[in-house]
Amino acid sequence: MEQVLIVKLGALGDVIIAMPHIKQIMEYYSKAKEVWLLTAPEFASLFTEFPYLKIQSFPRRGLKSLAAPIQWIRSQSFQILFDLQGSDRSKTMVALSGANERYGLGSGFPYTHCPPNRGIVAGEVHSFSRLNRLLEAADLPIAPTSPYLGAGGAQYWVVRDWLAQKKLLGRDMILIHAGSSARWESKRWIEAHFITLATILEQQGLAVIWIGGAEDSSLNQKLAQVIGIDASEAFSLLELAALARQARFAITTDSAPMHIIAAAGTPVYALFGPTDWQRSHAVGQKERVLTHSVSCSPCYLPQCPTERAHQCLVALSPEKVLACIRNDGLL
After folding, report:
1. Which of 75, 298, 319, 330 is the most buried (most CB within 10 A)?
2. Could you tell me which Gene3D superfamilies the record lists for this protein (predicted)?
3. What is the reported pLDDT for 135?
4. pTM of the full predicted structure?
């Protein structure tokens, strides 16, 4: 049986954006070919609901992050390869893969097929749209503009038990991801704004849950001392999706939880400042992006220079966020 390889190594938000495209490739080829996904170990669990997809994972960093996957790829004799990553590392894998058909968003070597203008059409630079142009270049059906992230019964019961423990069963609740990676502190809204917003939401009868991982823990503990419940490191990726399905809406920074919650089908109000929302907003949530226009945004600086006073997010008021939520009829 011929084999197809999809390469999508990370990061988490990018993997979630690409999941509908991976599903399309899997469904198109699975009847006649064996379809594999090469990804990082920490993302393999996201694909448990993809029944016809075989998973191979290697670490994204370190000395073995290139040599070992290349050796594995060559040993499998793939005929068709889709590079949904587009990094220097993945291009090297493609170049040495031995595959006859090699699809990617770059032009020329190592790809045999690519969409015009690297998939950018009518100024649409979001990766979801560009990956659809890549599917078109392969004569495949494009992915629907709706997120896809499966979560089964096991995740539902974990979440239900946690909610019962916190006396939240039957409560209307909202999720807030206030943090960011340690490298990207410039993505964070100021704590006073989060507290103001959470206080108003609780006054409306909503339970506020602060979500995140290890890097968010200290911030969430600090916020929860004032209001809300700290759920740092309480859930796996799929459990967070299961939790999101029970929330009325969520408020996040530009972060991986933004994409997870959107993929669960829950409304997400996303706060953008130093990064370009047009490139990385959650799929299906474009109208819920919140920004404050300043000349230096997007700057892509992990730390805001002192003289700029973080105005892209400081001047984005809680009142503006609340007005957007009310306009959607969710308050």
Report:
1. 298
2. Glycogen Phosphorylase B (3.40.50.2000)
3. 97
4. 0.93
- In Å, how far are 48, 59, 78, 190, 231 from 37, measured between CA atoms? 12, 14, 12, 39, 31
Q: Which two tokens stand for residue 248?
A: 């009325």
Q: Nearest Cα to 151, choosing from 45, 267, 231?
A: 45
Tokens 């909503």 correspond to what residue?
206
Look at the domain 3-137 and name its fold: Rossmann fold (3.40.50)
Contact 234, 158 (CB under 8 A): no
3-137 and 153-327 agree in CATH topology: yes
Domain extents in the chain: 3-137, 153-327
Task: Flag whether pLDDT at 63 surpasses 70.
Answer: no
Q: How far is the C-alpha of 149 from the C-alpha of 18, rounded, in Å?
A: 11
- Give the torsion sign (CA, 167, 168, 171, 175): positive
In angstroms, the CA 259 to CA 214 distance is 18
Average pLDDT value for residue range 136-148: 91
153-327: CATH number: 3.40.50.2000
Q: At a CB cut-off of 8 Å and minimum separation 6, what does 291 contact?
A: 271, 272, 273, 277, 297, 312, 316
The values of phi and psi at residue 113, to 5°, are: -140, 135
Minimum mean pLDDT range among 16-25, 46-55, 149-158, 240-249:
149-158
Using DSSP, state whether 142 is helix, strand or coil. Answer: coil
- C-alpha pair distances (Å), 200 with each of 93, 238, 283: 51, 29, 28
Its sign, for the CA torsion 292, 183, 7, 103, is positive
Quote the tokens at residue 282: 């959650």
Distance CA 293, CA 308 (A): 13
Report the pLDDT averaged over residues 93-118.
95
